[in-house]
Each structure stands twice: as structure tokens, then as C-alpha cells.
Prior knowledge:
The complex is a heterodimer of chains A (about 180) and B (about 120).
Chain A: H1 3-16, H2 19-41, H3 44-61, H4 71-99, H5 106-111, H6 120-126, H7 130-141, H8 146-153, H9 157-174
Chain B: H1 2-11, H2 15-24, H3 34-79, H4 84-93, H5 97-118
Amino acid sequence: MTASEDRDLVARAVSGQDTAAFGELVRRHQSHVRNFLRKLAGDYTLADDLAQDCFMHAWDKLQTYSGRGSFIGWLLKVAYTTFLQSKRKSKRYAEILESAGRVADQESRSTVLPVDEITDLDKFLSVLTEEERAIMVMSYACGLSHREIGDATDMPIGTVKSVIFRGKEKIRNSFDIKDHQHG
Amino acid sequence: MISKIINMAERIKDAEDRLLESLFESAPVVDDGFSVNIVRKINRRLWVRRLTLPTAALIGGAIAFKPLAGLTAALSNLSVLIPQDLISGAASSIPQLQTVVLGAILLAVGLFSVRMLEE
């Protein structure tokens, strides 16, 4: 799976509306995108729905991928935007429900995992803010460079570094991570 | 040079970074028809997009047919009011006026169709 192969597939998909080439890109990167969204959303079904939306948005915006930086970095940017948009929508939906006098417990119901399914990683992620979680996952789970994370989140590299530093510090202060080597 | 140094510094990971990497690591998600589903959805959307314009043109044409026919009838009634010598004068100066107009309409329709097919 090389970057130049990705670029060739993108070129084929954009120039000839080649859905097979795009299908190959989806097949190559779906695991990374779904894992990223699963860690971010904390709910597998919701994450997979978001991943579908993400790839549909990616198809629509494919011509905006300039070839600068990795394709997975660009894809994770689309995934992160999709996640934030859905979060905003569900927040607005909850507000409407609340204003209508109903109990808006849907969000909490959809994101909470059963106690026996909570892993060490879920515990670590729970102490982080949404932004910190996204950046830490991009860095440690997806292996993106600081520059790629900066491109994906529209942040300067310095800010990315300080968010990672802060995230690590939070995890370090909340848990003794040396005890979780096989977590 | 500076960017190379920055990249190298980024790659130098301490034990804590490696530990975090192992904690964040997760098994690859099996495709299980996910990519096929996406491609199917995109193909369906492309077909819908391709069919939308001709369908809209057809519906628009059907709706516009009756008022257009009325307009043509009204125009033909108006042509009676135009002096006959003016019409014959125009016809003599451009002998194939009708053919030219018909050709222009066909050309416009043809160009529009080609563009639609390209899209």
C-alpha cells in the first residue's frame, strides 16, 4: 500500500468517475477510518455509519485532494469533519428534544459501552477532551505525523504538539500507564 | 534541512510513546462488504444524478407544452396584423429564412444534448 498507488487511484477516480478505483481506496483505508471513528465516537454502529458518510463525502470532494501529504491524512480530515458535524447535529437534536420537554437521553445511550466491554484504552480516552482524543488517536493509532495531523485538524504544528503533550500528561496523571502494557 | 531535523526529532520516540502506541493499537477492521456497499451507493447516486436532468426536462416540457402551444397560436394570429409587403420583403432578402431558423433551433438542441451527455 504505497502513497503513489493511492495517488494513481485518486487520479483515476477523479478523471474518469471510476468508482472501481475509489472502491479500491475504500478497501485499503476503511480499517483505519473505522478504527479512528470507533475510538472517537465510542460506539461501533454509530462509527460505521459515520464511516459510510465519510467515504460518501470523500467521493464528492475527491478533486480537492491535492496529492500533498498522505491520502489517509486527507481521509481522516474528512472523517473528523464528519464526526464533528454529526456531533453538532445530535446536540441540536437533543436541544430541540429538551425544549420540547422530552428526556434527551439518546446521546448517552448511544455512546456508553457495557461495563464489561470497557477497555483500558476507553478509560484513557475518557479523560481526554474530544480534540485531544482525535489528535492522540491520529498520532498513536493511525501513525500520522504532526504535520499531517495539523493538516487534518487545521491546526499549527506547535498546537498539535502541545495538545499531544497535554493529552499524555492527563493520561499519566490519571493512570499508571506502565501497568497497562498489555491493555 | 530544518524540516529534516524536525522530522527526525518527530521519529525519535521515547518509551512512553511506544507504550502509548501499543495501547492505541487495535486489530484491523474486516471489510465485510463495507467497500462494496459504498461503491454500490455511489453508483446509485451517479445514476440518479444522470437521470435527474432529462427527467426534469421531460416534466418541464410536458408542463410547458400547453402554454407554448397557446403562445404559438397567439403569435400566428398576430402575424396577420403585420403588413404583407413587409413579410414578402424579409422573405426575399433571406430566401431560406425558415430553414435557417429551424437549423439554429436544431443546433441549439444538439449542443444542449451533447453537453448533457458529457455531464
